[in-house]
Amino acid sequence: MAGCPVCNGLVQLTANCPNCKHVVTDNLRVGELFGPYSPYEPLETVPDQIGMIHLNTCTHVANCPGCGTASYFLVHVRV
Q1: Are 79 and 42 in contact, with CB atoms under 8 Å apart?
Q2: At 20, is the pLDDT very low, low, confident or very high (cuts 50, 70, 90)?
Q3: Which residues have CB under 8 Å from 70's CB, separation 6+?
Q4: Phi, psi torsion values for 58, nearest 5 degrees
Q5: CB of 53 closer than 8 Å to CB of 33
Q6: Could you tell me the pTM of the whole model?
Q7: Between the CA of residue 10 and those of 4, 14, 65, 68, 77, what are the distances in Å?
């Protein structure tokens, strides 16, 4: 089973806002937006409901504290 190192608390999401370059704050895995049990499902079984299908990645939503922009970031999963 593949595992996201950010979801599993092994590392923190480190990314910059594409707008203003501030460090963003990770909010959640995109799959968590789509159902009460989706955070507990393996990545392979959670449908990619925003049309971003990427093999071996976990899509996270992050907000910028500087300008308020919400962005998607892809985290490579460990297989």
Answers
A1: no
A2: very high
A3: 27, 61, 62, 63, 64
A4: -125, 125
A5: no
A6: 0.67
A7: 9, 12, 23, 26, 11
Structure tokens at 65: 């504290």
Measured between alpha carbons, how far is 34 from 48 in angstroms, rounded to an integer? 10
- For CA atoms 18, 15, 46, 68, give the dihedral sign: negative
Query: Which residue type does 6 have?
Result: V
| Residue ranges covered by each domain of the chain | 1-79
What number of other Cβ atoms are within 10 A of residue 25's Cβ? 13
Using only C-alpha atoms, the chain has a radius of gyration, in whole angstroms, of 12
Mean pLDDT of 37-48: 56
Task: For tokens 């990314």, name the residue.
Answer: 15
